[in-house]
C-alpha cells in the first residue's frame, strides 16, 4: 500500500522461534515488504479485443480514439421550435415550415421568418441557431406563437462540443466502468482492447469446513472463506475458474494446487498456514518446494505463504480466520489481480479521517482495523466496528473501510487523524 514506511535496506530477517510463535524458518516482513514481494509475481496479462458487453471492470491495453464528433451534428436539447434568433420576439407568430423528429436524416433548412418543429436529439436545421422549448409557445403545428424569448443559441448542443473525432477518449490502464463503456459505444466502438481478466482459483482447507448448508456437528462450521474470496476476486475484475474445499490432507492439497496452477493465473488458498499440527497448506508448500512461509508484522494477517506452482502460477496462501483472509486479500491479492488486469492504479483509495473513539493496537504490528466511514460532514469520521478479533465476520460485513494504525502505535485517541483505506468499489 502507498504511504508506507520505506522498506528496510537489509534483506529479510529469519525469525527465531521466539515468543511470537511465528515458527522457525519463516521470513519476517513488514506489510509493505510482503505486498511488494507479491506484486512482483505478476505483470499485465496479454491484450485482446473484447465486446463491450463483456468488458465491465477490465482495463484498457491501449489508448482509445473517438471515430466521431460528439454530438455528431448540432442537435436540439429540447422539444420545441428551431429558428433564427433574429426572428424571435415575445408574441411573434411564425409559420411552422417542417417537422424534425429524432432520427430524421433529411437535410432540413429553416427559411427566414419561419420555425421548424424539433424534438430532443434531432439535428438542428440549417439556418437555425436557437431552440425555443414548446412550453414557451402555444405548441402550434401550422403556425406557432412564441410567448417569450430565449437567448440566441439556447438549447443547441454544438457538434463536437463534448468529444472531437480523433480525440483520445480513454487511456491505457483505465478500468472500464459503465460510463466508460457508454463513451466507447457512443464514439463508434463495439469492442475494446483490454487485458485478459486474471483467472483465479480459490482453495479452502480445513476438515471442520462444511459446504452446502444443513445442520452442523459439534466442531464443524459452514465454509465461508471460499465464497468470500471468490466474490472479492470477481469484484476485483478476475474470472474465478474454480473454488475447492479440501480436508486437512497434505498430498491431496498439493495435488489440487498443482492441478489448479495449470488452469489459473493466481491460486489463492486459505487456512492451514500457521504453526499448528495440521496446517496443511504450510506443509504442502514446503513439501512441494513451491513457496515460503512468511510472518508479516500486521494484524490481522500475520501468517502468510507465497510461492509459485510448477506451472509458474503464483500461489498466495492466506490465513484461515475470515477477517484475516479478507484483509490479506485486500492488501496482497487484490493489488496483484489489479496488476494482472492492467489497471493503472492497483491500490484502493486512501483518505484521511477523524477517529470517532479510542482504539488500541498491538506494538510492532501494523493494524488494519475494520471501520465504517461517515462522509456526511466535512472530514470523514471513522468508527471501528467489532474490535481486533480476526474471527469477527459479523463486524467485517458492516465495515466499509480499514483504519491503518502504524506498527509503532499502541493507542490512537478519539479525534485524532488517521489514514483509512476506502473499501467501497469505485465506479471504475
Ligand atoms: N500457536 C499459535 N497459534 C496461532 C498463531 C500463532 O502465531 N501461534 N497465529 C494465529 C493467527 S494470527 C492466525 S491468523 C491463525 C491462522 O491460522 P491458519 O491459517 O492456519 O488457519 P486455520 O487454523 O486453518 O483456521 C483459523 C480459523 O479460521 C477458520 N477457517 C479456516 N478456513 C475457513 C473457511 N474456509 N471458512 C470459514 N472459516 C474458516 C477455522 O475454522 C479457524 O477457526 O492462526 C492463529 N493461531
Ligand atoms: O494474524 Mo491473525 O490474522 O491476527 O488472526
From TrEMBL:
Pfam families: MoCF_biosynth, MoeA_C, MoeA_N. It comes from the Bacteria. The keyword Signal does not apply. One of its GO terms (biological process) is Mo-molybdopterin cofactor biosynthetic process. GO terms for cellular component: cytosol. Its EC number is 2.10.1.1. Its cofactor is Mg(2+). InterPro entries: MoaB/Mog-like_dom_sf (IPR036425), MoaB/Mog_dom (IPR001453), MoeA-like (IPR038987), MoeA_C_domain_IV (IPR005111), MoeA_C_domain_IV_sf (IPR036688), MoeA_linker/N (IPR005110), MoeA_linker/N_sf (IPR036135). Residues 1-20 have a biased composition (Low complexity). It is an enzyme of class 2 (transferase). Keywords: Magnesium, Metal-binding, Molybdenum, Molybdenum cofactor biosynthesis, Transferase. GO terms for molecular function: metal ion binding; molybdopterin molybdotransferase activity. It catalyses: adenylyl-molybdopterin + molybdate = Mo-molybdopterin + AMP + H(+). Pathway: Cofactor biosynthesis; molybdopterin biosynthesis. The keyword Transferase applies. Residues 201-339 form the MoaB/Mog domain. Residues 1-25 are annotated as: Disordered. Belongs to the MoeA family. Catalyzes the insertion of molybdate into adenylated molybdopterin with the concomitant release of AMP. This is Molybdopterin molybdenumtransferase.
Amino acid at each position: 500500500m502507498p504511504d508506507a514506511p520505506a522498506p528496510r535496506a537489509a534483506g529479510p530477517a529469519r525469525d527465531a522461534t521466539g515468543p511470537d510463535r511465528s515458527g522457525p524458518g519463516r521470513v519476517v516482513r513488514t506489510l509493505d515488504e510482503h505486498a511488494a514481494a507479491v506484486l512482483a509475481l505478476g505483470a499485465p496479462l496479454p491484450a485482446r479485443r473484447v465486446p463491450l458487453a463483456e468488458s465491465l471492470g477490465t482495463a484498457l491495453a491501449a489508448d482509445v480514439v473517438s471515430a466521431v464528433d460528439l454530438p455528431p451534428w448540432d442537435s436540439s436539447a429540447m422539444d420545441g421550435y428551431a429558428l433564427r434568433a433574429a426572428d424571435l420576439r415575445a408574441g411573434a407568430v411564425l409559420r411552422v415550415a417542417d417537422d424534425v423528429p429524432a432520427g430524421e436524416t433529411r437535410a432540413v433548412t429553416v427559411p427566414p421568418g419561419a420555425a421548424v418543429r424539433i424534438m430532443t436529439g434531432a439535428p438542428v436545421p440549417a439556418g437555425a441557431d436557437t431552440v425555443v422549448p414548446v412550453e414557451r409557445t402555444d405548441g402550434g403545428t401550422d403556425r406557432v406563437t412564441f410567448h417569450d424569448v430565449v437567448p440566441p443559441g439556447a438549447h443547441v448542443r454544438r457538434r463536437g462540443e463534448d468529444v472531437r473525432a480523433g480525440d483520445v477518449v480513454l487511456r491505457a490502464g483505465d478500468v472500464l466502468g459503465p460510463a466508460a463503456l457508454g463513451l466507447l459505444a457512443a464514439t463508434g466502438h463495439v469492442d475494446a482492447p483490454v487485458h485478459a481478466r486474471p483467472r483465479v482459483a480459490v482453495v479452502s482447507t480445513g476438515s471442520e469446513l462444511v459446504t452446502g448448508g444443513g445442520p452442523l456437528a459439534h466442531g464443524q462450521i459452514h465454509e465461508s472463506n471460499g465464497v468470500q474470496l471468490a466474490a472479492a476476486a470477481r469484484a476485483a475484475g478476475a474470472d474465478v475458474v474454480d473454488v475447492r474445499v479440501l480436508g486437512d490432507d497434505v498430498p491431496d492439497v498439493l495435488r489440487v494446487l498443482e492441478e489448479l496452477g495449470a488452469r489459473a493465473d493466481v491460486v489463492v488458498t486459505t487456512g492451514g498456514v500457521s504453526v499448528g499440527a495440521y496446517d496443511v497448506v504450510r506443509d504442502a508448500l514446503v513439501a512441494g518446494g513451491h513457496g515460503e512461509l512468511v510472518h508479516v508484522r500486521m494484524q490481522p494477517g500475520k501468517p502468510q505463504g507465497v510461492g509459485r506452482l510448477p506451472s509458474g502460477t503464483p500461489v498466495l496462501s492466506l490465513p484461515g480466520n475470515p477477517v484475516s483472509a479478507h484483509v490479506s486479500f485486500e492488501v496482497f491479492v487484490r493489488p496483484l489481480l489489479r496488476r494482472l488486469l492492467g489497471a493503472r492504479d492497483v491500490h484502493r483509495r486512501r483518505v484521511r479521517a477523524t477517529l470517532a473513539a479510542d482504539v488500541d493496537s498491538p506494538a510492532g504490528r501494523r493494524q488494519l482495523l475494520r471501520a465504517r466511514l461517515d462522509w456526511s460532514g466535512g472530514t470523514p469520521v471513522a468508527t471501528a466496528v467489532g474490535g481486533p478479533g480476526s474471527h469477527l465476520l459479523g463486524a467485517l460485513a458492516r465495515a466499509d473501510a480499514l483504519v491503518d494504525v502504524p506498527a509503532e502505535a499502541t493507542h490512537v485517541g478519539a479525534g485524532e487523524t488517521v489514514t483509512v483505506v476506502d473499501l467501497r468499489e469505485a465506479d471504475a
